[in-house]
Specification:
- By secondary structure, this protein is an alpha+beta fold.
- It has a single domain (2-253), classed as Ribonuclease H-like superfamily/Ribonuclease H (Nucleotidyltransferase, domain 5, 2-Layer Sandwich), CATH 3.30.420.
- The chain contains 11 helices and 5 strands.
- It has helices at residues 11-17, 25-40, 77-91, 100-115, 120-123, 148-152, 163-169, 183-188, 192-216, 222-239, 242-253, and strands spanning 2-9, 50-61, 64-69, 95-97, 145-147.
- The chain is globular.
- The two termini are 27 Å apart.
- 35% of the residues are buried.
Amino acid sequence: MVFDIETVPDIDSGRGLFALDGLSREDVGKAMAHLRQQKTGSEFQPLHLHRIVAISVTLRAGNGFHVWSLGDLESPEKELVQRFFDGVERYSPDLVSWNGSGFDLPVVHYRSLLHGVSAPRYWEVGDEDRAFRYNNYLGRFHWRHLDLMDVLAGYQLRAAAPLDQVASMCGFPGKMGMSGAKVWDTWLEDDVQSIRDYCETDVLNTYLVYLRFELIRGHLDQAGYERECQLVKDTLQASGKPHLEAFLSAWTDGTGESEREMPAQ
């Protein structure tokens, strides 16, 4: 199960922590960005002050491949986090991410702490299930969660690469008409659907890089790799969703962000 999250500043916590009561959500966001800029030289908020607005996943199980966003447009953050952990509880899947160890999972940890979301399977380290003692979701060098960025960089921060560039380098679409930097403005416009669509293309890029990784480490041969790619193409073709069809076209046409935009909803 490949996963990715999209976040905005946690303005509810920001109001309380920085005495910003009475300000609009946009002004709270600006104030938090200014305070962070003064402290660190960057507006990027500490991970405990990120609010999750979308979680998207791909799931390869049995004979099927699926891509979707958890919950719906009105789902509160707690429901998104709960649904993510419900999937872990039910399936104990191998998790795959791009920078999940450095960003996505720590954010999910803090938000589950905030909302009181229980996830015993995820936090298992072998006390109840001995199979998790040497292969769990929390161990950096365990494979139940594979952070592709971390592994490909040899666990060296200076060697880390952006997903967009790695995906494009491998012939996949990369970013299409949006980036993480635009999520805040899009959220202020109450356009959660566009954020979810963007997040789904990110997990697709990650999954396709993962398939290439499985090829280079010998878990797939060339024929198997091509079958897996074809399964993804067939799924996107049958989806009936404009953003997934645009992703497929960008992939098969060999075009990327500079030539294609995400379709308007």
